[in-house]
């Protein structure tokens, strides 16, 4: 499963993305997680196929704009990351993993 995090600059999500890959692997799910900023996520979506786009809590005010821009990509699940699931600690990332699995019906 390919997961894209979108945040202000793409940097703050790096640790959480890495931890999410580790947690998903422990749970038998292969996730490729990449982080992008609001200025370059759309270009990446056009160049690669993603299953899930997650909007970081610090830019949740831009969720509607991001979701609308991503509507043209078939089968892309777009969600806000709940603030209580946004930290690079394993118990918290496990909640995020479960959230993704629920939203994608996996």
From TrEMBL:
<protein>
    <submittedName>
        <fullName>PTS sugar transporter subunit IIB</fullName>
    </submittedName>
</protein>
<keyword id="KW-0813">Transport</keyword>
<feature type="modified residue" description="Phosphocysteine; by EIIA">
    <location>
        <position position="7"/>
    </location>
</feature>
<keyword id="KW-0418">Kinase</keyword>
<feature type="domain" description="PTS EIIB type-3">
    <location>
        <begin position="1"/>
        <end position="106"/>
    </location>
</feature>
<dbReference type="InterPro" id="IPR013012">
    <property type="entry name" value="PTS_EIIB_3"/>
</dbReference>
<keyword id="KW-0762">Sugar transport</keyword>
<dbReference type="InterPro" id="IPR051819">
    <property type="entry name" value="PTS_sugar-specific_EIIB"/>
</dbReference>
<keyword id="KW-0597">Phosphoprotein</keyword>
<keyword id="KW-0808">Transferase</keyword>
<dbReference type="InterPro" id="IPR036095">
    <property type="entry name" value="PTS_EIIB-like_sf"/>
</dbReference>
<dbReference type="GO" id="GO:0016301">
    <property type="term" value="F:kinase activity"/>
</dbReference>
<dbReference type="Pfam" id="PF02302">
    <property type="entry name" value="PTS_IIB"/>
</dbReference>
<dbReference type="InterPro" id="IPR003501">
    <property type="entry name" value="PTS_EIIB_2/3"/>
</dbReference>
<keyword id="KW-0598">Phosphotransferase system</keyword>
<dbReference type="GO" id="GO:0008982">
    <property type="term" value="F:protein-N(PI)-phosphohistidine-sugar phosphotransferase activity"/>
</dbReference>
<dbReference type="GO" id="GO:0009401">
    <property type="term" value="P:phosphoenolpyruvate-dependent sugar phosphotransferase system"/>
</dbReference>
């Amino acid at each position: 499963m390919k997961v894209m995090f979108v945040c202000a600059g793409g940097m703050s999500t790096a640790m959480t993305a890495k931890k999410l890959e580790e947690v998903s692997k422990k749970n038998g799910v292969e996730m490729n997680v990449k982080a992008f900023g609001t200025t370059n996520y759309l270009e990446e979506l056009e160049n690669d196929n993603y299953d899930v786009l997650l909007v970081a809590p610090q830019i949740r005010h831009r969720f509607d704009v991001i979701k609308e821009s991503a509507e043209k990509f078939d089968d892309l699940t777009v969600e806000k990351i709940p603030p209580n699931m946004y930290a690079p600690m394993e118990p918290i990332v496990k909640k995020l993993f479960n959230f993704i699995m629920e939203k994608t019906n996996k």
